[in-house]
């Protein structure tokens, strides 16, 4: 297996002087293709900071990040955005659907610019596996929070990224849908050789993980 994401001595500080916060403290972390890794920690422990830095949405204060062997944190913003678009599927804490596009249109727009094209049949299968196929002509405002979250998950998977970064993907779901979503992400990781990192505060969601870490005050600790 290859290292898809490698974080070396990553530290992130916000603010300065007596208001300085160390959100991430000297983190070393690797995820390989085919692995599903969970990070569990309480609110404010640094989970979202970890995930947005690993995906290049913000820069670390120090340390280095390699994405498929390429030093990611030192790239110019345009190249970084390019790589991010091709290689990373984000599932963020707040869903980022386009309000004036139907569920189906959220995908067709992406497909025009993507290097990995997805067929109509593949899209249908993906939407069915997340129980949202019947909603394909609906707009985001007409969906429940859980349905919107599942559309966001489908969109992250749709582009066939090598790395999937999921921030509390089950936060707005009922237990059954939450379990289904995590199991689907685990299955994608194992069958399609995706490197997947999920952060959560919900211990019930980590039971299918290949590895689990604890995030505590910006430090990453191996679980048990
Ligand atoms: N842009 C920012 N500016 C200043 N402080 C920040 C910023 N982003 C995060 N922090 C601080 O860094 C720490 C970690 O925040 P983070 O959002 O990563 O936590 P989290 O584990 O994702 O929490 P939650 O479970 O509530 O989503 C917190 O103390 C937070 O206040
Ligand atoms: Mg968070």
Please write the CATH class name.
Answer: Alpha Beta
| Average pLDDT | 90
Compute the CA-based radius of gyration.
17 Å
Q: Please identify, by name, the CATH architecture.
A: 3-Layer(aba) Sandwich
State the major sheet: 6 strands, mixed
Low-confidence stretches: none
Return the structural class.
alpha/beta
Order of H and E elements: EEEHEEHEHHHEHEEE
* Range of strand content: 25-35%
What's the β-strand tally?
10
Report the span from N to C terminus: 24 Å
Shape: globular
Number of helices: 6
CATH topology: Rossmann fold
Give the strand order, joined by hyphens, for the main sheet. 6-7-8-3-9-10
CATH homologous superfamily grouping: P-loop containing nucleotide triphosphate hydrolases
- Helicity level, as a percent range? 25-40%
Please outline what is shown here.
The protein is 32% helix and 28% strand.
Descriptive account of the structure:
The protein has one domain (3-222): P-loop containing nucleotide triphosphate hydrolases (Rossmann fold, 3-Layer(aba) Sandwich). The strands form two sheets. The protein has a six-stranded mixed beta sheet, sandwiched between helices. A four-stranded antiparallel beta sheet has the order 2-1-4-5, with helices on one face. It has six helices and ten strands. It is globular. The two termini are 24 Å apart. Helix content is 32%, strand content 28%. By secondary structure, it is α/β, with parallel strands linked by helices. Residues 14-15, 21, 23, 41, 43-49, 201 line the site of adenosine-5'-triphosphate.
């Amino acid at each position: 297996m290859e290292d898809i994401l490698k974080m070396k001595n990553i530290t992130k500080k916000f603010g300065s002087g007596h208001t300085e916060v160390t959100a991430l403290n000297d983190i070393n972390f690797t995820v390989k293709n085919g692995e599903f890794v969970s990070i569990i920690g309480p609110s404010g422990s640094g989970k979202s900071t970890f995930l947005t830095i690993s995906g290049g949405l913000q820069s670390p204060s120090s340390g280095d990040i390699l994405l498929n062997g390429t030093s990611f944190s030192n790239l110019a913003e345009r190249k970084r955005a390019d790589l991010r678009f091709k290689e990373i599927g984000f599932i963020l804490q707040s869903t980022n659907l386009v309000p004036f596009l139907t569920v189906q249109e959220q995908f067709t727009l992406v497909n025009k610019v993507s290097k990995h094209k997805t067929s109509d049949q593949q899209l249908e299968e993906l939407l069915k596996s997340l129980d949202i196929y019947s909603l394909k002509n609906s707009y985001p405002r007409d969906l429940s929070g859980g349905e919107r979250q599942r559309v966001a998950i489908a969109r992250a998977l749709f582009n066939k990224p090598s790395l999937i970064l999921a921030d509390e993907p089950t936060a707005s779901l009922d237990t059954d849908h939450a379990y289904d979503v995590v199991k689907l992400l685990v299955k994608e990781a194992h069958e399609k050789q995706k490197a997947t990192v999920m952060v959560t505060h919900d211990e019930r969601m980590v039971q299918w993980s290949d590895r689990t870490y604890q995030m505590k005050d910006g430090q990453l600790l191996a679980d048990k």
